[in-house]
Design brief:
Blueprint (H helix, E strand, L loop, with lengths): L4 E2 L15 E2 L11 E6 L2 E5 L17 H16 L6 E4 L9 E4 L15 E4 L4 E7 L3 E7 L4 E7 L1 H5 L2 H13 L7 E4 L9 E2 L1 H10 L7 E5 L3 H5 L17 E5 L1 H11 L7 E3 L24 E7 L2
Length: 305
Amino acid sequence: MPTKLLKSGRQPAKRSANAIELIRPTSPPWQLPWLVSGFSTRKRGLSTVFGRRDLNLGLARVDSPKIVERNRQLFFREVLGGGKQPFTLVSLKQIHSGIIHVIDRPPKRAPKQLLAGDGLLTQAPGLLLSIQTADCVPILLFDPVKRVVGAFHAGWRGTAKRIIEKAVGEMQAHFESRPQDIQAAIGPAIGSCCYAVGEEVIDEFHSQFSYAASLFSEVFDDDPIKKKYPMLFLSARPPGHSNLGPQIHLDLIAANRRQLLDAGVRATNIWSADLCTGCNTDRLFSHRKEGGFTGRMMAVIGIRA
């Protein structure tokens, strides 16, 4: 859980044609003055390693740490809106798990190793909880009554481990939140249109969820080249088993929405960006569509003092 002091008050954010793009939930509860939240995109940053000027916020080896740090400052300045209170950034070593950490206070110093897990919760002002994604589902939660906030990373493994359902339970157990009070925001993630999965994923979801069948759909390959020259794309498998048949696609966003509903969150309290990372690589990073060579977006949430 490394920390970093974000001194947003020294340089108030200025809107311009070159300002970075920030996605915020549009429903009224998310406009509360004490709440800080937002999802980044890839647009108008300083990284050039991915072929354009990108707002890469992930400390990957392919990008310069100094450039990433400057990108982060651009993002933090925008998301904090020029507020005068410094925030401490809280991050995780994301491991595609169902592990959630409750943070009570900022550490006195940065630890040598990140906390491992995929969820963060706090009631403490001045902490900016963060998770990073490039296809997986970023989800922000907050309880306006108890003033609790949380950030969660839900890939297919974390979704199968019910991380967001567990998050609501943790808010009840640690902070006495009522599920009907909780607000949820689902950020940009890979849509079912672009997320073909294999037997391992299908079997795991069917073993965990009685409604698993509703999360999958068959999608046929519509590539015109493959249709015109099918023999070029036949695999070494027996006839009838080539890639020209239907693929099974998973709707991760629907899966996490269902978990929120099952945990007691009201449907009217769930906001979604409705943006597929795979369909919008001009605007968003997609690990799958870009063959793994891509940056990372960040979702953050915090409480002003």
